[in-house]
């Protein structure tokens, strides 16, 4: 079992430590004691709760796609030169940065405040875990 501290669980869920403790008291989330006596939650149970409570904005593209990693957000910054552009989106708590042609930025009408969807193919995603 992966043990997650209450403070870290709260950060993952986007709520306060007190809310996590309240959910534990209500039985929404289980907890145990670590070897050092700290109250911790099971990582698998936390993952289940995260998935259950996640709210995804509707994808405005409404297209059929094989890509499952779609992040809807707002364009927060566009930095362009004559050939290339850097486009930054804020997708919930995640900052996504894409490099593309300036022509594509113009064609898509990308500018700060515009709703857009970042699509990430799984073959280009790096997954890391904390060192142990």
Automatic annotation (TrEMBL):
InterPro entries: HTH_17 (IPR041657), Mo/tungstate-bd_C_term_dom (IPR008995), Mop_domain (IPR004606), SinI_DNA-bd (IPR010093), Transp-assoc_OB_typ1 (IPR005116). Pfam families: HTH_17, TOBE. GO terms for molecular function: DNA binding. Signal peptide: none annotated. It comes from the Bacteria. Keywords: DNA-binding, Molybdenum. Residues 64-129 form the Mop domain. GO terms for biological process: molybdate ion transport. The keyword Protein transport does not apply. PROSITE patterns: MOP (PS51866). Gene3D superfamilies: 1.10.1660.10, 2.40.50.100. This is Excisionase family DNA-binding protein.
